[in-house]
Each structure stands twice: as structure tokens, then as C-alpha cells.
């Protein structure tokens, strides 16, 4: 394995591309492509959230997670789902609590524990942003033919299952 | 547009999945799948880098960027390529400089400016990590058939070009 192949650049030099086309480096090539596309979309959404709503992407993600769970989520579960450290989650929750967009309440399944929930105001605030967010994603992907989109969704679904299996090894 | 669809969860509830299958929400569905797969792989690589080499993912990424540019890169260009703030880049460069893995030298094209380069020791250190990193990616994607990999690479290449075009609007 040559070290050059693992670099996370977005435009490989021609010689590198040529070498990556042999099957051997297919996994790395696929990963670098996924990462490049995801980073581009994410960076665009991040800056639109900032300029459009004055909020960070982790804050949007956290509200999105809560929106999916009307019963609320424990801090540890939130942190696991967002794949960020619990310190980050604590900070964002504290900020949203001050703005009365989330509330900490007793876990209905375990009175000694607490869960975080969106307040009605938080739910309304998120609803507005989520609709605009979907519009941005639709716009960013507007030049991708519907057939390609459907094909990628199917392939990514398959990949997600395989990555899950991998985790359970 | 319904707000629920914009949540970034990894396992949509059945009713949501059903609604997402109509063409209308295809872009969002594709984006959530891309994000979920990328986050899973990234999180696995992040924790392997930490336990295997005791380093962070941004540090690995920064060395990967420099490895691709033997002439060196200016701080602003490094930050742009890594899509992180220049404050983050400054911190990592300072750390790598203390360990003599990178050096700041005069830009050969503009003597008043500085570029960051890997030192020979940095190049050797990165080479070892990059080889192991490629092994991890190969392992993570081992259950994905070669045909699926090739198809995804082609679709992502197309997407990358379309996202670029979008940027130039």
C-alpha cells in the first residue's frame, strides 16, 4: 500500500486516479468520494444555517433528533445519535433551554432519570427551519437526475446495513 | 413540506420512510442516507486513529493534505481544503511543528508568504498511518460487492461535478 492513496484531497492528481482505478484501491476511492461530496453539502448547509437562522449545524441536528422523539431523549442517547461528545450536547441543550426551546423533564419510563424534549415553541421553531432546510437540499441536488438519486439511495441503504453488520462483529 | 422530513435521524419511522419514497422528498432522503453512512465510517476511523495512533481525525486530514502538496500549502489554503476554520488549522500546525513533523518555510512563489510542509519525519510518520488507514477502509467496506462500489464511485463522481457547478452559479 502506498501512503499517497490515503490522502483526503478532493481532486486526485491524474497518476493517482489512474492507480486508484484498479480494484485494489476501490474502497479508499469510494470513501474519499463519499467524504468529498458529504463535506461539500454539509459545508453549504452549515453556512446557510448560519446566515439564514444564525444557528450552528450541531444545534439544528440536535433539534432534529428531538423532533423525531416526542417522548424525549436522555443526554447520553442524544450524544450517541449525534456522534458527538456529551460535553458538546450539554452545551447546546443548556443554550436551547435558556431560549425555552427545549425542556428537561422526568423520564416517563424511569422517574429518577431526565430526558430532553422540544417545547411547543421549540417544535414550531424547528418546523420552520426544517422546511427551509429541505428546500436547500432539493436545490443543491437539483441537477442530479431522479434515476441517479434512486440508484444512490438504494446503494446507500445497502451500505448502511452492511456497516451495521460490521459493527456487530 | 413537512418539518418531520428534515430530521437527521438514522432510522426513519416506517410512516416517514413511506412518505419519503415519493419523488418529492428524494433529495432529502438521499442526503440523510449519505450523511448517515459517512458519519458511521468517519466515526469508526476517528476512534481507530485515536486508539491506534493517539491522534485526532483533523490532524490526520491535515497531514494528508500536505502529503499531496510537496511544495507546501498556505494556512488559508489548508483551511479551505479541510473546510475548517483557520483557528483550528493554526492549532494543529503549531502542534505538528513542535513535534517536528511539519515546518513553515517561505513560499517559493512569493518570498513574503509562508507555506506549511511535511518534514521528512512527518512524511514517514504519515506514510505508516496512511497504509493502516487504507486497511481500515478496505475492511469497513469489505461486504460491499465490487460492482456496487464501482457504481457508487461513478455516481458520486457525477454528483461532485454537479455540486461544483452549483458553487459557480
Describe the structure.
2 copies of one chain form a homodimer. With 169 residues, the first copy, chain A, is mainly alpha-helical. In chain A, strand 1 (102-107) and strand 2 (110-118) form a beta hairpin. Chain A folds into 2 domains: 1-53; 55-160, Arc Repressor Mutant, subunit A. Chain A has a two-stranded antiparallel ribbon with strand order 1-2. The first copy, chain A, has helices at 14-20, 26-53, 57-67, 75-82, 86-98, 120-140, 146-167, and strands spanning 102-107, 110-118. Mean pLDDT of chain A is 85; it is low at 1-14. At the A-B interface, helix 2, helix 3, helix 6 and helix 7 of A face helix 2, helix 3, helix 6 and helix 7 of B.
Question: What class do helices, strands and sheet pairing of chain A give?
Answer: mainly alpha
Roughly how many Å apart are the termini of chain A? 25 Å
- By CATH, the topology of the largest domain in chain A is Arc Repressor Mutant, subunit A
**Low-pLDDT windows of residues of chain A:** 1-14
Multimeric organization: homodimer
User: How many individual domains of chain A?
Assistant: 2
Give me the Rg of chain A, rounded.
20 Å
Overall mean confidence score, pLDDT of chain A: 85
Strand content of chain A: 5-15%
Q: What would you call the shape of chain A? A: globular
Q: CATH superfamily membership of the largest domain in chain A, which one?
A: Winged helix-like DNA-binding domain superfamily/Winged helix DNA-binding domain
Q: Give the SSE order of chain A as H and E letters.
A: HHHHHEEHH
Amino acid at each position: 500500500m502506498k501512503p499517497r492513496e490515503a490522502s483526503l484531497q478532493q481532486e486526485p492528481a491524474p497518476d493517482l486516479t489512474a492507480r486508484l482505478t484498479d480494484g485494489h484501491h476501490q474502497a479508499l476511492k469510494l470513501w474519499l468520494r463519499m467524504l468529498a461530496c458529504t463535506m461539500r453539502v454539509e459545508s453549504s448547509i452549515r453556512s446557510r444555517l448560519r446566515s439564514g437562522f444564525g444557528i450552528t449545524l450541531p444545534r439544528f441536528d440536535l433539534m432534529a433528533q428531538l423532533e423525531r422523539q416526542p417522548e424525549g431523549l436522555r443526554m447520553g442517547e442524544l450524544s450517541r445519535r449525534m456522534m458527538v461528545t456529551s460535553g458538546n450536547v450539554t452545551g447546546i441543550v443548556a443554550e436551547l433551554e435558556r431560549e425555552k426551546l427545549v425542556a428537561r423533564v422526568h423520564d416517563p419510563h424511569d422517574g429518577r432519570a431526565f430526558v430532553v424534549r422540544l417545547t411547543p415553541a421549540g417544535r414550531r421553531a424547528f418546523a420552520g427551519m426544517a422546511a427551509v432546510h429541505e428546500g436547500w437540499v432539493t436545490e443543491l441536488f437539483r441537477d442530479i437526475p431522479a434515476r441517479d438519486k434512486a440508484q444512490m439511495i438504494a446503494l446507500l441503504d445497502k451500505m448502511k446495513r452492511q456497516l451495521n453488520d460490521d459493527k456487530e462483529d
